Amino acid sequence: GGELFVLNAANGALLKTFPRHSNQISCLVYCKEDMCVLSASWDKSLRVYDDMATNNPLLRSISDAHESDIKCLAYSHSLSLVATGSNDGHIKIWDFVYFLLEQQHHTTSEVNCLVFVEPFPVLVSGHENGDVHVYTVRPAAIPQLLFTTKVWAYDGECLGVLCGDKEGPFWHLAVDTDSVSERKLHFAQALWGRLKDHLQLTALQTPTTTPTTLSHR
């Protein structure tokens, strides 16, 4: 495990490979604005590759980013942040350009999924025990845990948080393999309402200025 291949989506032809991780890759994110690929692995490392490089594509790497296996990964171009979660319950938030640790939080349950709630400086995490944690991140004045709620039903293998614009950022909180149900939508709306109670979200929207991006060789 650990190989990373780039294939032609139309015909499946192999285009190139990236330097491999030493263990199975657990998550990948394509950063289209920067034309980079973020990867995390069960070798506990976090990497970013330059998709445009003809040689030496590895731009940044953190070995031992977590003490346990990294299970999930989220990226925000507008915030220039990367979030990682591990199976020991740790959440870490990194500066995308320099891979410096910005925040970390310890929770009591395995982190199954992470998502940034664009355009707000908010990160949501979903956990094996059904917990959902909501955090503020930079440029919020005081990055912190806002609140924790419990999903009314969950499947540890499928818990996911998705964003959309139909009913506000939390229009669908997927907690099992069924299609979107009215009860799930009500839960998402309640979560969105609770978040609005904690924040003046219009004042927290991310700046319209172009964020700092990675330099390509």
From TrEMBL:
Record's InterPro entries?
A: WD40/YVTN_repeat-like_dom_sf (IPR015943), WD40_repeat_dom_sf (IPR036322), WD40_rpt (IPR001680)
Question: What organism does this protein naturally occur in?
Answer: Aphanomyces astaci (Crayfish plague agent)
Any single biological process term in GO:
ribosomal large subunit assembly
What Pfam families does its record include?
WD40
Has keyword Nucleus? yes
- Kindly list the places in or outside the cell where this protein is found, as annotated in its UniProt entry: Nucleus
Protein name (Swiss-Prot/TrEMBL): Anaphase-promoting complex subunit 4 WD40 domain-containing protein
Question: Which keywords does this chain's UniProt record carry?
Answer: Nucleus, Repeat, WD repeat
- Give the taxonomic lineage as stored in the record: Eukaryota, Sar, Stramenopiles, Oomycota, Saprolegniomycetes
